[in-house]
Amino acid sequence: MKLAVVHSYLYTKGGAERVVLKVAKHFNAKIYCSRYEPELTYPEFKELEVEELKTPLQTLVPNSLPVRVRDAIRAGMQMYLTKISEEYDVINAQGTPSEWIRNRNSPVVWYVHTPNREAFDLYEWRMSRRSLGERILYWSAIQPYRIIEAKLVPKIEYLFANSALTQSRVRKYLGRESEILHPGVDYREFYCKDYEHFFFYPSRITPEKRFEYAISAFKQFKKKSGGKEWKLVIAGALVHERPEHVRYYHNIRKLLGDDGEILVDVDFSTFHDLYSRCYSVLYTPVNEDFGIIPLEAGASFKPCIAVNEGGPREVVVDGYTGFLVNSVEEMTEKMLELARNDKQVEEMGKNARKHVEKNFSWERFLKRFEEVCKEVANGAK
After folding, report:
1. pLDDT at residue 380, as a whole number
2. Structure confidence at residue 381 as a pLDDT band (50, 70, 90)
3. Helix-helix angle 328-339:342-359, to 10 degrees
4. Number of domains within the chain
């Protein structure tokens, strides 16, 4: 079967990019995207064929617009107007607005990481943090997006959702049903060296990852435990051209102070090493659609303490592979509990590894994904 993958942007190292990479490698597929920065994303993409989409109309979008708005408009134009010249049995759309490729191409299987959070579930949350001018600009861009989305999504042949939460968002905001297919994790690449006295929060440096939650919990933990040797390590990709992300980075760096360190744009081997040596992993994003971090923690034999909302509730088995918490204070208490019991940490870490191996393999993911793509290609879906 000949398959093409369409994804909006390849310029960071995240869970969505990992799914794109796995699908493309499995099918030896060509990738079409709006923007590709090979030095900023996973190096394995260099082994695949990647083509940036272009349309003459994108030159009408001024560079003076905020990066998020400018890139979104250009990507939308490219996806909406492109007729892919090569023949494919199936086109797999990934990050939004790649589903707009359905305007001039079919059949399409959309793997939904989440409906556009800027336009839907995080709309009010993000708007409340912007100036009046920014609110007007973003509102003006989001309204046509919603109109086109409502027109095209009903035409898509099949939808996967990466989690039950994403499935519910697809139903609520887009009016479509979808099949839950959790991403996998390369658990064989992860290992455990030790349980050193630091908690680890790996994730992209963006406001919705809510690092201040974890920092506040850690500061309370350090005060209550009296353990001066403990620290919090944060590591993740930072999009330097996004001023709001850079401001947020400086804010959390100031908030953390001398209680830990923030590592930016580290390579994957460094991530593996930090996972392997940390005591436990923290994860506190705002209603995350799925979140690969708890899986990588489990693959590294480390329990994860995560907020009790969104995707983590589908991954962390409370009290068995980690903890789900409802407040900063509760996270502090669970950190104290683990810090006082090394055997509990190791036991939960072993449970987490078994849980990942059993339920979150790429083999399972790709088997079901390929089954559906073949059915769509044959007109059975």
Report:
1. 63
2. low
3. 110
4. 2
Distances (CA, A) of 17 to 21, 78, 82, 381: 6, 19, 22, 26
Does residue 221 sit in the same domain as residue 285?
Answer: yes
Residue 2 is classified by DSSP as -
Looking at the fold, whether 9 and 48 belong to one and the same domain comes out as yes
Report the distance separating Cα 123 and Cα 116, nearest Å. 9
Q: State the residue for tokens 């995707």.
A: 311
Q: Residue 68: which residues within 8 A CB-CB, separation 6 or more?
A: 118, 242
The answer to whether residues 260 and 168 belong to one domain is: no
pTM of the model: 0.85
Residues 243, 301: one domain?
A: yes
Contact (CB, 8 A) for 115 and 93: no
H/E run at residue 218: helix 211-225
The tens digit of pLDDT for each residue in 278-306 reads 999 999 999 998 989 999 999 999 999 99
pLDDT digits (tens, 9 = 90+) for 357-372: 999 999 999 999 999 9
CA 214 – CA 198 distance, rounded (Å) = 13
* CATH number, position 240: 3.40.50.2000
